Amino acid sequence: MNLILFGPPGCGKGTQAKRLVEERGMVQLSTGDMLRAAIASGSELGQRVSGIMQRGDLVPDDVVIALIEARLPEAEAAGGAVFDGFPRTVAQAEALDKMLAGRGARIDKVLRLLVDEEALLKRIAGRFAEQGRPDDNPESFKVRLVAYNTQTAPLLDYYQAQGKVTEVDGMGSMDAVAAGISAQL
């Protein structure tokens, strides 16, 4: 089963993806985690995307698509993937559908986490204070939220046209959100 956790930055996609990995043995494909690892490694890719992410801008499609494609065999071996933070644009969604179709697979469900944007800003400020992630500061979050609303939110129409979107209340406790996800699966 291949799932997309869908929602704005800070809505809990990563937290819920990790739970799905633990509970169902799926592979989490988080472009954010992959890109942060590239930055930490000091690789050419990491140097290329560091400034982009710190500004809150979206990393170019060719980079994130290549990262995802490299991890698909691992996800297939595990019986499925939880896509976290990908796709972010219709072009990425189309590329993902094409990649998966070429492997005899597809996106089975898009789980949209419904959240309040003002509450997200508070969540991000707290996470920045605790973890100090440079791409998670309140200022870059605002830029990421605008990018989400203009570039990523239109993906809902793309996946709704395929009948794949299911909504889950993302404002409850981690356990309540996880229970909502489990009920939809």
From TrEMBL:
Q: Sorted alphabetically, which NCBIfam families does this protein's record hold?
A: PRK00279.1-3, PRK14527.1, PRK14531.1, PRK14532.1
- For the ligand (ATP), the binding residues are 10-15, 127, 172
Checking PROSITE patterns in the record gives: ADENYLATE_KINASE
Task: Give the source species.
Answer: Caulobacter ginsengisoli
Q: Where in or outside the cell is it found? A: Cytoplasm
Task: Tell me which family the UniProt entry assigns to this protein.
Answer: Belongs to the adenylate kinase family.
Enzyme class, first EC level, given as a word: transferase
Q: What is its main location?
A: cytoplasm
Which residues does the annotated region (NMP) include? 30-59
Q: In which pathway does it act?
A: Purine metabolism; AMP biosynthesis via salvage pathway; AMP from ADP: step 1/1
* An annotated Gene Ontology molecular function: AMP kinase activity
Instruction: Fetch the PANTHER family from UniProt.
Output: NUCLEOTIDE KINASE
The protein in question is named: Adenylate kinase
Highest rank taxon of the organism? Bacteria
State which Enzyme Commission number(s) the record gives.
Answer: 2.7.4.3
What Pfam families does the entry give? ADK (PF00406)
UniProt KW keywords: ATP-binding, Cytoplasm, Kinase, Nucleotide biosynthesis, Nucleotide-binding, Transferase
> Which amino acids does the record list as binding AMP?
31, 36, 57-59, 85-88, 92, 133, 144
Q: What is known of its domains?
A: Consists of three domains, a large central CORE domain and two small peripheral domains, NMPbind and LID, which undergo movements during catalysis. The LID domain closes over the site of phosphoryl transfer upon ATP binding. Assembling and dissambling the active center during each catalytic cycle provides an effective means to prevent ATP hydrolysis.
What this chain does, per the entry, is described as:
Catalyzes the reversible transfer of the terminal phosphate group between ATP and AMP. Plays an important role in cellular energy homeostasis and in adenine nucleotide metabolism.
Which portions of this protein are annotated as coiled-coil regions? Answer: none
Question: Quaternary state and partners of this protein?
Answer: Monomer.
Q: Which HAMAP family match?
A: Adenylate_kinase_Adk (MF_00235)
Catalytic reactions on record = AMP + ATP = 2 ADP
